[in-house]
Amino acid sequence: MTDLTPITALGGTVARSEDFGVLRLTEQPDLSLASLSLRKGQGVPSPFGLTLPGVGQSSQAGEYGAFWIGRDQWMIEAQGTQDIAAMLKAEVPEASVTEQTDGFATFEISSAGGAGPLEAVMRKLVNLDPQAFEPGAATRTTLEHISVFLVRRAEDRLAVIGMRTYAGALWHALSTAARRIGAQTDGELAK
Amino acid sequence: MLIPHPLLGLRDAQEFTYLGDASLMHRPDPAREDAVAAFADYVFLRDNPAGVHRELWFHEAGDRSWLVVTRDTTTHEILGAELASDVKLGGVQ
Amino acid sequence: MTRLSKGGLIDRDARLRFSFNGTEYSGYQGDTLASALLANGVQLMGRSFKYHRPRGVFAAGSEEPNAMVTLRDGARAEPNTRATMTELYDGLSARSQNHIGSLERDLLAVNDLLSPFLAAGFYYKTFMWPKAFWEKLYEPAIRRAAGLGALSMQADPDEYDKGFLHCDLLVIGGGAAGLSAALTAGRAGAQVILADEDFALGGRLLAERDRLDGAEARDWVAITRAELDSLPNVRVMPRTTVFGVYDHGIYGAVERVADHLPTPGDKVRQTLWRITAKRAVLAAGATERHIPFADNDRPGIMLAGAMRAYANRWAVTPLKHANDPIAIFTNGDDGHRTAMDLIAHGARVLGVIDSRADAPCFGQYEVFPGATVTGTKGRQSLYAIEITRNGQSEWHSVGALGVSGGWNPNVHLASHHRGRPVWDDALLAFVPGPNGPQGLIPAGAAAGKGGVADALADGMQAAITALLEIDIAAKPIPLPQAENAPAAQEAFWHVPGKRRAWVDFQNDVTVKDIVLAHKENMRPVEHLKRWTTLGMATDQGKTSNISALAVMAELTGKTIPQTGTTIFRPPYTGVSLSVLGGGDTGPHFRPKRLTPTHHWAEAQGAEFVEVGPWMRAQYFPQPGETHWRESVDREVLAVRSGVGLCDVTTLGKIDVQGADAGEFLNRVYANMMGTLKVGMVRYGLMLREDGHCYDDGTCARLAEDHYVVTTTTANAGLVYRQMEFFRQCVWPDLDVQLISTTDAWAQIAVAGPQSRTLLQRIVDDADISNEAFPFMACRELTICGGLRARLFRISFSGELAYEVAVPARYGHALMQRLMEKGADLGVTPYGTEALGVLRIEKGHAAGAELNGQTTAQMLGLGRMVSVKKDSVGAIMSRREGLAGDKRRLVGLKPVNAQKPVAAGAHLFAKDASRDMANDQGWVTSACYSPHLDSHIALGFLEDGDTRMGEVITAANPLEGQEVTVEVVSAHFVDPEGGRLRD
Amino acid sequence: MTFSGFKVVKEALTGHKGWRPLWRDPDPKPAYDIVIVGGGGHGLATAFYLAQTFGELKVAVLEKGWLGSGNIGRNTTIIRSNYLLPGNEPFYEFSMKLWENLEQATNFNSMVSQRGIINLIHTDGQRDAYRRRGNAMLLAGADARLLGRDELRQMVPFLNFDNPRFPIKGGLMQARAGTARHDGVVWGYARGADQRGVDIIQNCEVTGFRIEGGAVQGVETSRGYIGAKKVGVAVAGNSSRVMAMAGMRLPIESHALQAFVSEGLKPTIPGVITFGAGHFYVSQSDKGGLVFGGDIDGYNSYAQRGNLPVVEDVIEGGMALMPMIGRARLLRAWGGVMDMSMDGSPIIDRTGIDGLYFNGGWCYGGFKATPASGYAFAHLLATDRPHETATAYRFDRFARGYVIDEKGVGAQPNLH
Description:
The structure holds four protein chains of four kinds. Chain C is α+β, with helices and mostly antiparallel strands.
């Protein structure tokens, strides 16, 4: 292994995490990503045993995950830092595979107060109906002028995956929204 | 505006970038004798209808697909949307 | 004090202090500033725009034209705020506007005396002589008098938010119709948003004494509100104005989250909501209109419905002295309701002056049938009115006068898509027309169904109809027992007379002005508006437009619908620029992109510069350097003599794969890419389809079916988009896959004669000798003990140079490592300034040369446009205008080496006169070259390629400079390119 | 009737009895020498100069609605001649000189107010580009000044100099630029043309061209056929659909541009300020409203209205530039239809049909061009030769490769 020490997208040596009332915002540097695009006429493969998800969805198989990013195109996720592009290419040698791990910064917003506060944050940031964006849903959209992937990991957990060089701006946007929502009392968040 | 993406359903038009008349898909044959004139028409002239318009939108902050959207330029009502690659491969027009 | 002893929706236990023009008053929780001022006997609240007439409050809602104040102090001062919409809070402070001296003794009231000279359109007819006086004298004087309130000139200290909401049904307005619509939809399980501009739900139900199920209407409102609040699928949003209808069911709404608090505390002040609603019910109610008559603008004269609202909801009468009598002037039954309500509250009512000869009477008060008000007295407070009946006039003492001319449905939102409202002869009003925004259903008073029973039923039905369209079955709900109040009226639009009768109060437009507009042929309604400024004040003519149309219709002999309306445009009421602007006005106005070595550069004390969204290190000042040029010169020389490091991650990177990747790139690049050998890089030039240069960069072929192409920083997104366009829209038959990888790789330029030596120290086991890894080679390898990397031997500076790319998270550490390993080589980080100098010295085109207006030929790259194949832009690049363009990129060297040349100077033959005809080009880029110890520049020059050695002039008259320059090759450094290849 | 201060006083003292219609409402005659299609600023200016300068006596202007109902009636009223390219700058400078004498020419106060325009500079590259432009302006006989940061700050201290995302490093100023009262321009030209015998016919929509043997004979209208030796079309926004009636396709798309005005405020902003980094330009009217705008909405549209994202984008830019305007309110937003041409520059030219002339493609810059556009179009109609400042505005510049592309963005109208 190299003796160079990596930094996180926010520039730290450890992942940043901050609580805002019931909301927690966490940087997740240990997610490996590679894109998978089918060649012309290629059938849909099952790398790492994954059932590649349909439009707007994500799927999971053990340590691996996938979410749909375009027609015949997925992002493959793996926990931990590894050469996922090479591993994926070995799984599906006929497909186009591109290393994407460091193309993105991943942040997770989680709520200790159920779906309500998480959806309130979503309402402040993205033009998606949170009630229709159910666990398992994945999409790309704009957030404060930044293009991001959103993956709803669970009722109370949302991954926001944005271009790495925008990490600081994305953290600013997410933390501002989380601070404002987190400061509200439960009553105000009921709907 | 909301664009009825053929795969993703209604999406905020802010996720898209607009290009213009879908005739831009029909690049002239560069080998034809009057290629310069044909390209000049292709690049510069537009029907620009007041009414139904077929036009190209790029889902830049989305799935990166180019769409052919059919929209009324007088009311902004959208009558349909298709993936541009399907339109082109389907040989429409 | 004119507060009634009981009644009203105010909390008499919650006394609130406030001040107006420095005088302390008190009111109650539930008051507006207007109701609280009235309760304190304050009638005079403002001055009109043009004539500075004393004005009192005229309405009780957002249509208010007169009672405009500046609310709050200091940086929070908010000009032009309606006292009628300002919820009273403890410590509120407000000032009146648009006067010089005190509100009571406004020096500009002199304008009123001059009013004959200031008739509609007067300024178009004069101030033209002498010519210079308009800008020097007249206009400055007009500007001094312009405007109403003043800006604080300080940045707004509050926070603002934006958000998105989605629902099945948006109900706009929480009166009788809106509440029944929301309840119907809520009970059906639909996702419902109910928005109302008021802080209390209920609409006119709070302002009237209607009975619902035999009880006070406010009881039903409270029960309904409680049920709506309890439903998880209903979001009730008071203090929220839906201000505009946009395409495809998107509504703009502003929620005043904290405007009712002394300061917002940890809340945002306001939130802008973009609501996507599958359907909407417009239950925005109606606005009462007045009847213009002589001197009808005095404090104490107000809309009769507003007078009712003040009495019923706020328990106040608009009197200066509590026991003065109040008169009502009406053309219909509605005015009589005010008389009855006032009597019920114990006020003295002089009587109802009803224009109808057969005026009814509904209670114990005097009626003046067939009568009109023909005059008033009381400059700052009404004290008498003249009632004329059958030509007989007599004066009566009154303390206030209510005026009722009928109600106009609030059709605004229904007309935001330019569908015109239609005239209803029975209602004597415009109602929403058939061409309103899709999915918006007007209901209740907004649809002309203003009776309480009608509105309740109509709201329910509208909800049922709307939901049925989106496949939600809603059932009728039991509605409370209610009655429609009598609402007969006659078409009576204004009282003719010789004195001024105001139509538009805020802008001081009178019936006479409309007569004048008619006489001058300003008859189309838009001309009328623009000539007289009718309806262009902050109230947008809510109380005046229809009356004005009626007057114009009378003059032209046309009907009111023939006369037409002006266009209704958003916003419905004024929306603060702060909330529309969203709040992040400072460094977070737009997101920043940081390079992988940003934090490292910051630690080195780098100066940064904005490059589009990016922040890039501009130069790295060292101790003792006092001027940026010292740093830049040092950095440049370090590259030319040793080795330098520069983060070039910002260049766009696109991964191109697929069996047809080479063919695809052949088509999108002007030069040939399909023939590139694996492991090699080629400079690529991209044209737009119109034949002009679009972008340049490099293509690296990593495998037979795999390329990585780079773009300029500025065009990264655009080139990707263009490539996707060709891939999907033009040649979808090709097997090509594209994805951007700009952010994934930290890319560092290692440039200078020592660059190989330095790189050899970090490369694990690959041979990067000149033979094994020649100029324009590329390779995937590992460095620093196993780190995946890509190495490209490319040069922007003209020196032996490489770019090394590693996963972005290692960029910071790689930079540190290179600095350590190169210490003995004098390794030097350099920024964009040095990068610029290096490329100018080498004659490489950048943004100033690739500005979208230039051609390959102009850049000296004409031969790159391959004629062996077609590519984007190739055909159009051969048009005569492009092929015949003789301007060429040249180097320019000042004859006096120490004399700087300015980029943007224009080029002239030495003795040519400095005019357009002799303009032969311009300087695109300029710098000081420490390597040559001379200022140098690049520029486009007519026939430049044939003029080497000629001495010409770079003229910069803008800054009074002229520099004599010699035309030289653009390649100031190593024109043969030997350094690149060694 | 001549307008003057004296006349205003006299009428005030005699009860305003002497005022007359600003223009007649004549019925159309069977035929004219020249028919102008479009009663907006450009059409009326054309008619005015045809009558005033070129001595044309039988001229009609046909307007489908009310005079000035197109973009001249809803714009941000800016006049300037701060262009870069030789195809443009002399034309706009000619326009500026006509503005400077407009009131005297029309005897109508159109409130031309030369309070200056400042284009802000945020980067060194922008300064270089503005230097090139400023020099081009001077070489064309216009005025220009390059302002440093300190000088700029003294002039407009309320800008966000201290805490900006995009630093303000200076500005390019044209002191002779400013604003004019848009409606006043319409009415001044209309009244002036009417007084010189031009028939201005409102509510008269052209529904077709009568073309025989490759030459125009007249126009079909909602008020009947009107014969004409020459027909000039000046209907920017609707150019494509009108010229389609003559069988022509144009290098033009129609786009929505919004403009905005705030509630009236005591004047604080002296001239016009353009924020290059944030899509925002602003001035303050003589009534006190902040008049501002930004980018076009970006999609083809004839709807004369726009959408919320652009409203937000423009005002975000305004707030970033001038955070002190935040507590003022937006009063009104308009949408107009822009003739966005393929190179961002206009067309004033003959067509392939004898006697049919075209004026359009003004993008969002038509207002400032009104006087020169009218003059140059009148020149072309009267003499069959382009005016010396408008020789580049030809149809064939696209096919032949002589585009006038100030922004350098190519044949994509929504980027100009």
